[in-house]
Amino acid sequence: MRHFILVSALSGAVVLSGCGHEKTREEADRAIQDVISSDESSLNEIMQSVADPNEAISYFKTALIEQPDRIDMQRGLARSLVRGKRHTEAASTWKQVVNHPESTSDDMVDYADALIRAGDWDLAEKVLDDVPPTFETYKRYRLEAMIADANKEWKKADSFYETAVGLTTRPSSVLNNWGYSKLTRGDYKEAERLFVEAITYDKSLFTAKNNLILARGAQRKYQMPVIDVSQIEKAQLLYTLALSAIKQGDVAIGQGLLEEAIDTHPQHFEEAARSLRALESNVTN
């Protein structure tokens, strides 16, 4: 409907000002198509980025019924399915995209990403192997690092993580992933350093803050680090630290941290209170 209004308005202008002038009409027709194309492109961007994922999925599926070979609509559907966490469908749709004659290396990387989300790590690795080695992007190396991690190929993982960090101005998430990799390997000191670095790039990244506490707890560092946290976040991190202390046998310290977490939280902190009651019951028994 919006396109019809635009076309009607512009066509009216042609009738008024260019009647009988074929050149003017051709120029106006081109202008109309430019407006329609620009309008559609803007709508596609909105659907892929900020629209409700289910609404976007319906939009692109409808568009593909009318024009099934349009790769931009196929990409839009695939990205919307990822946003909607329909990962199996997303992987299937990205496969159609990469089989399109106009597909790019970016599409192959997005296909690999969808496969990882769907749990098909082996196929994702094969897809990335087919991406030309000269195609160097942050997302490609982040995925390569994740796959190397899954395969426990630590040297390759470290190399890929380092490359990915150098290819983005917002490396917080990949630094967090790298830190978690170090954490699972037992390299707690290096993990701590990477989590701190991730937080310096994104102070809102609570996952990195929680992982930092886990890395410190594993080293029996039971003091809260100097990081920017809200009151609720501090209570939650104290709770994580308490559980880490208890797990390592430092029960008295863990009990004190649970009490501090409960006192810090601005509302009732049920998880911490329940853990404290269970701990006190065990100590009494």
From TrEMBL:
InterPro entries: TPR-like_helical_dom_sf. It holds the Pfam family TPR_16. Keywords: Lipoprotein. PROSITE patterns: PROKAR_LIPOPROTEIN. It comes from the Bacteria. This is Lipoprotein. It comes from Actibacterium atlanticum.
